[in-house]
Write a sequence for this structure.
């Protein structure tokens, strides 16, 4: 699986004759070494105003930032998803005659490393677009670098709405940032409410215990739930924003049991595995669902020996869900190329590269401003939905639009293939929205 | 009323687990006079031994539990033979060396098995309702196991030759060697027994909470509190200490706030050191 990634890492190309691109790179260097703050707003006279016709290019370069793509499935999915898009496009003759090429760099989930690698992509690799970035802290660290380099960036992974808030506040400076997915953290919370509102009756959840891990990414989720969950017909039996690093969920689960809640309504990433193992092993008498990032991994069931059976999580897509006509085709092609199914970041990175290709192909212009204009007007049917971006005036400027007609996450339940022997294997079945569902929700047998 | 019965049941069960965690630690201090900061590492190895055997190698659960006992026993024995034995009367060196070893083991587990918790099999799956409280069979099994071990250890120490030798070395290793007891051998046996006990604690904890590379840290701190409260080196003290701390911990969490999880043992530790530094049944620190 990693071979592909390594193969795709190229060292600086020496076949670029276009001097204008070097000018952009120079501007990028200036930004990356810290002048971004002063040079950002006045973009008049900057090189990006000048057209950069695709027809005069024989190569378009894309930089990818991914966390530990050699090991971390989230990082590998970003790198491989982008690689698959590039390979497929090149097989079809490239974009307007130009070949796409990909350079992958490892952020190691560290803001400082991410910023350094971003600088390398701009200066040494002279890329026309960057994509990827899973960790919100890394994204926030490179936002000023993106502004300085004036190179379009399409985030595939990080959900913090702080990025779009910056685009909204200083549009001219930060307009190069787009979030192709997932929906931002505020909308993740709104989507949880929408799910409960539509599905609570069918699930039999009359009251829920809200359990949210205390990390930065869940703050907008908490805010959205606090604001909107009480307006649904589901009773909130308790709310617990538990400390980061929690390992023993016994006291919390005891409290949930006492509250009499039908389900733990969760937002968990870092602490999710401990939480789901303890819930399952202890056969706690309440159901378990919400956002559980580890459960989104297609290989997760085997990794925890079936402990996630009957757990529910939001997800961008699953290998079997026909979110769009492109979803399963991509998942299958990915599985064939890399011997495993992608995590959600893979779908998003694949969509980002394809949308970028469509935009530059339509406008015949690779210049940054043309790409920004193109993406703002684009409505691209990808694997995770129809990808459109909020306009400059929105508080979520350049974030992918949340909604049933645009990007509308699915809810999956891990269901054991053999209920008598849940350790043997399981499948991610979609239970919501109805038109995509592949199975009925199953109540855990011990309840 | 349901609150009280829940409190008593949960405290009793949790205390059994705590006793299991602390006895190995106290045994080594009592006999060798050194603090084994690698106790947490043995706990990690117990849990990951089971994981290695059952999940990675695909062996049966029974074999997994055996590996989960042998691995920390071997680790503990080798640690004594290879390192600790050379620093017999240098407790500070032993603390440094066991701390470093412990960190090395954690890093090894982190780098090979990853940072995410892993699931290991339970002794007995399923739940039962006791006095209006939902109790897992697994926890009951741990409770019973802990008492079997406590009683077994008591019988072993008081009624077997090796046990009496352990007792003798713990009182005075010079005196013991005068009557012909090989204190190195006794120390080795103690370290191996402590390793097995830590392994059982690791499996018990891991089957309940999932195993992580850092799962030995909290039990190590807990052991400190329990052992200091009970009197350093006293097995009886450790058992009583484990129950007192278990009840205080559950009471804090249940009657005051969830946010106090893990804080009670630390408060007890400081309190005991200030008020009664020799602990309930000990004499060592007072002398």
């Amino acid at each position: 699986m990693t071979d592909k990634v390594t193969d795709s890492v190229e060292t600086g190309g020496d076949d670029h004759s276009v001097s204008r691109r070097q000018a952009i790179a120079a501007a990028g260097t200036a930004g990356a070494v810290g002048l971004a703050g002063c040079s950002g707003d006045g973009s008049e006279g900057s090189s990006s105003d000048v057209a950069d016709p695709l027809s005069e290019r024989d190569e378009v370069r894309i930089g990818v930032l991914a966390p530990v793509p050699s090991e971390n499935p989230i990082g590998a999915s970003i790198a491989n998803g982008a690689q698959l898009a590039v390979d497929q496009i090149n097989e079809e003759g490239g974009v307007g005659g130009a070949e796409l090429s990909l350079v992958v760099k490892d952020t190691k989930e560290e803001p400082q490393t991410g910023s350094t690698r971003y600088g390398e992509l701009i200066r040494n690799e002279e890329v026309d677009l960057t994509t990827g970035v899973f960790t919100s802290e890394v994204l926030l660290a490179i936002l000023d670098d993106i502004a300085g380099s004036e190179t379009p960036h399409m985030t595939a992974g990080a959900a913090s709405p702080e990025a779009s808030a910056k685009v909204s506040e200083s549009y001219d400076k930060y307009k190069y940032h787009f979030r192709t997915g997932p929906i931002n953290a505020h909308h993740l919370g709104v989507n949880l409410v929408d799910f409960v509102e539509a599905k609570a009756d069918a699930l039999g959840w009359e009251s829920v215990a809200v359990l949210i891990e205390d990390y930065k990414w869940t703050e907008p989720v908490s805010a959205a739930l606090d604001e909107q969950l009480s307006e649904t017909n589901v009773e909130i039996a308790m709310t617990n924003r538990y400390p980061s690093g929690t390992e023993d969920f016994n006291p919390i689960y005891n409290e949930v049991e006492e509250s009499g809640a039908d389900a733990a309504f969760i937002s968990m990433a870092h602490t999710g595995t401990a939480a789901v193992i303890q819930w399952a092993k202890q056969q706690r008498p309440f159901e378990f669902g919400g956002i559980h990032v580890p459960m989104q991994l297609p290989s997760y069931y085997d990794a925890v020996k079936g402990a996630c059976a009957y757990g529910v999580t939001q997800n961008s897509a699953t290998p079997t869900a026909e979110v769009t006509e492109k979803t399963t085709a991509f998942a299958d092609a990915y599985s064939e190329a890399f011997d495993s199914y992608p995590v959600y970041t893979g779908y998003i990175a694949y969509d980002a590269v394809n949308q970028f290709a469509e935009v530059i192909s339509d406008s015949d212009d690779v210049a940054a401003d043309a790409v920004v204009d193109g993406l703002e007007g684009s409505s691209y049917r990808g694997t995770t939905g129809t990808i459109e971006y909020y306009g400059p005036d929105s508080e979520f400027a350049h974030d992918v639009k949340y909604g049933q007609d645009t990007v509308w996450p699915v809810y999956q339940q891990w269901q054991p293939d053999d209920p008598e022997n849940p350790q043997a294997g399981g499948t991610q079945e979609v239970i919501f929205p109805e038109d995509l569902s592949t199975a009925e929700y199953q109540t855990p047998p011990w309840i | 009323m349901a609150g009280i019965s829940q409190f008593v049941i949960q405290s009793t069960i949790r205390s059994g687990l705590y006793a299991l965690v602390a006895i190995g630690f106290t045994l080594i201090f009592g006999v060798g006079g050194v603090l084994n900061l690698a106790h947490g590492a043995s706990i990690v190895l117990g849990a990951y031994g089971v994981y290695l055997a059952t999940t990675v190698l695909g062996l049966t659960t029974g074999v997994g539990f055996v590996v989960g006992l042998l691995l920390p026993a071997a680790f503990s024995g080798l640690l004594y033979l290879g390192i600790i034995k050379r620093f017999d009367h240098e407790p500070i060196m032993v603390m440094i060396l066991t701390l470093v070893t412990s960190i090395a083991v954690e890093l090894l587990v982190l780098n090979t098995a990853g940072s995410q918790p892993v699931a290991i099999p339970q002794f007995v799956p399923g739940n039962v309702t006791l006095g209006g409280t939902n109790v897992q069979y697994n926890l009951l099994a741990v409770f019973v196991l802990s008492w079997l071990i406590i009683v077994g250890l008591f019988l072993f120490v008081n009624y077997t030759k090796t046990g009496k030798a352990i007792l003798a070395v713990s009182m005075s290793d010079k005196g013991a060697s005068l009557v012909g007891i090989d204190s190195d051998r006794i120390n080795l046996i103690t370290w191996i027994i402590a390793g097995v006990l830590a392994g059982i604690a690791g499996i018990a904890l891991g089957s309940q909470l999932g195993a992580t590379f850092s799962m030995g840290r909290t039990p190590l701190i807990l052991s400190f509190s329990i052992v200091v409260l009970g009197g350093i080196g006293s097995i009886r003290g450790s058992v009583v200490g484990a129950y007192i701390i278990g009840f205080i911990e559950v009471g804090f969490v249940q009657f005051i706030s969830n946010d106090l999880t893990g804080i009670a043992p630390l408060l007890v530790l400081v309190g005991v050191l200030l008020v009664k530094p020799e602990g309930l049944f000990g004499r060592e620190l007072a002398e």
About this structure: The CA atoms of residues 8 and 197 of chain B lie 25 Å apart. Chain B has two domains: 21-213, 216-279.
